[in-house]
């Protein structure tokens, strides 16, 4: 086993296609020392991942990826690491989000069925997609049903032809609420793939400064959407500001060319990122 990690993975409990146990087995096969299960707006798969990790000798960090709105920016993603995922208040908050997510999935299926009807094709059902999900129904699960029916060639085709045109907006956490929740649960808040907010470095620097004043602890400098230059800018800016930096593949199992551990092929996240996360958590106790 090497000293590399992947701190951003998704399972069937949100919009990934691998179970937490399967993700741990993959990490073991790749020789990763640690992983973080960071499903969208749910912690339902963490206990399974922790048990599988203990059995396989792979360190698993509890994590959660919040879908957040900040200022005029929508769908900002905030990672909360090493938080108390069994907290009852958190469970209630996430249950509300899960219920809304299920309703969104049903609404997307209804829109897709309207489109299928115009094409002379039989409808799909939410139940078929939900059967593929370990937790909340996500768009990749709907895409898999479309693939199984032979309506699309692959995942990308499903999104282009049906899921994007038939999408329904989702609800977002206010940034203040998400940061406060991570802090209350003893976690470490990291801004996920920051360049998806904006590629303008001045604007992004300002946002990071504002969020760090609100409780942000670091940035995900290495990810599958940043260029090499952007990643090194984020790392150097984090170090300049006294923030920590992390990295992860954001692996769902559906993106062409993205692999666990290495992202698009060049990612190599050191175990020192885990050490820094744990150090910061211990300092706050």
TrEMBL record:
Pfam families: PHP. Residues 5-70 form the Polymerase/histidinol phosphatase N-terminal domain. SMART domains: POLIIIAc. Gene3D superfamilies: 1.10.150.650, Metal-dependent hydrolases. GO terms for molecular function: 5'-3' DNA exonuclease activity; 5'-3' RNA exonuclease activity. It comes from the Bacteria. InterPro entries: PHP_dom, PHP_domain, Pol/His_phosphatase_N, Pol/histidinol_Pase-like. This is PHP domain-containing protein. It comes from Geomonas terrae.
